[in-house]
Write a structure and sequence with these properties.
By secondary structure, this protein is an alpha/beta fold. It has six helices and nine strands, in the order βαββαβαβαββββαα.
Length: 224
Amino acid sequence: MNVLILKHAPMEGPGLIEEVLRRQNIPYQIHDLYLNASLPKPEAFSHVIILGGPMNVYEEDQYPFLKKEDLFLKEAIQRGKCILGICLGAQLIAKALGAKVVKAPEKEIGWYEVSLTETGSQDSLFSTLPKTFPVFQWHEDTFEIPSGAKLIVTSYGIPHQAFRYGENTYALQFHIEATEEMIRQWIEAEEGEEKTKILNRTEREIGDYKKRGIYFFTNFFKNH
């Protein structure tokens, strides 16, 4: 097993993913695409993790690495690699599979409730989760579900929250990898009542959220 992590911004790190990899002594590499790190060949890795970022998938002129990443993901999916995309990473997977990525009806910043679909309730990674559970969100775009993919997590405001393509490719709009430190860094620039509200809820949720995230990533690396 050898894991490649694609990182798009300094503050959008692997969080709980890296904690699980270290615990399991699984070899991994982090490629900082925003520093023009070159993309290796997909065949060199068993797993590919695509993290979030402030850019949009359609801003390839402004962020040239997105075009290279798109080609990389298409090849990795074709080769049947185990792939997990989070936030921007999920949108990049959707785009690589031919689905549209567009502005969401509303921005989601903070804690939101999401629910498993019937397919999600039977999925090996999600079946142990509650039917409805809180997640941390930070996005303004949303994706369509690619042809052949299955919707596994949904919500009232933004229906497309996670999908699975085939048996090995997962795309999650929400930040299941986020630690308390990461959340505090992200909302540092926010002001007022909303910031206080997010911080207070983070203190209430983060214990269970961390346990759920570690369990999720442990299963991902164990079973895929």
